[in-house]
Amino acid sequence: MFQGVYTAIITPFKNDSIDYDSYFKLLEKQIKAGVDGVVPCGTTGESPTLSHSEHAELIRETVRAVQGKIQVVAGTGSNSTKEAIELTEAACKDGVNGILSVNPYYNKPTQEGLFQHFKAIAERSSVPVMLYNIPGRTSVNLLPETVLRLSEVQQIRSMKEATGDLGQMAKLISLVGDKMTVLSGDDNLTLPLLAIGGVGVVSVISNLFPKTMVRLVRSFQEGKTSEARKIHYDFIDVFALAFMETNPIPIKAAMHWFGHCGQEIRLPLTRLSQNPTSEKFRTVLDSLRQKGYE
Questions:
Q1: Which sequence spans correspond to the domains of the chain?
Q2: Which residue positions does UniProt flag as site: Part of a proton relay during catalysis (predicted)?
Q3: Which of 142, 192, 195, 270 lies 20 to 30 Å from 164 when distance is taken between CA atoms?
Q4: Is 44 annotated as a binding residue?
């Protein structure tokens, strides 16, 4: 089952194509930092604007590049169950360690519809499935009682929880904690979720600070709670500012500022607005780097 730090990795672009030179350097940075895995083709990777061929190619290239040094959990979600199954089967053939399947968006299925959707995907997957609950993006909330039913499906072994509701997360862990792992889908709730039984995070911030997010999680797991709290509080402003505009706009801007990739982002997303808030974001990031965080 998945636990630790998984980076929801960005997709760098150049001239409207995937910039693999930059991407492979980003993967090497993640490997050297000791993350447990990367998640290509997620929201942070701008999956909604990747063509089907780009989606398949990016997953294949990620598996090839990491060479088994870290796990690859590929985003294969869709609001079409048929399409999600097709993406999942293709990713499995390409050698991923797991797949991330998000709530169907826009069509707003019932809890029974969610159950049937994820069950159908898991039954066609040859690798473990991480469910992804993010009502703010999908307009549907995968409730703990539904997850409990899904935990009986063989391949469903983990959940990325991004409701922002610690009460719901606690109920979820109380129901499925012995059958599934639960990871935070929000960087700012990594430490609180660990405190109530979560086991890690699918992180946006770890694109830029992978070693730090690994330290945060491992410090807590090793009983060094003071160290974990210090990191949490030092990063509390960044956790908020990284979502001042729709993800991945801010993190992609930050990655460009520090020389990791170009600033290209695909419509309908646009580059980070230049205003006092974005200036504060850069100032805070500079301060953290000066303190030795990486």
A1: 4-291
A2: 43, 106
A3: 270
A4: yes
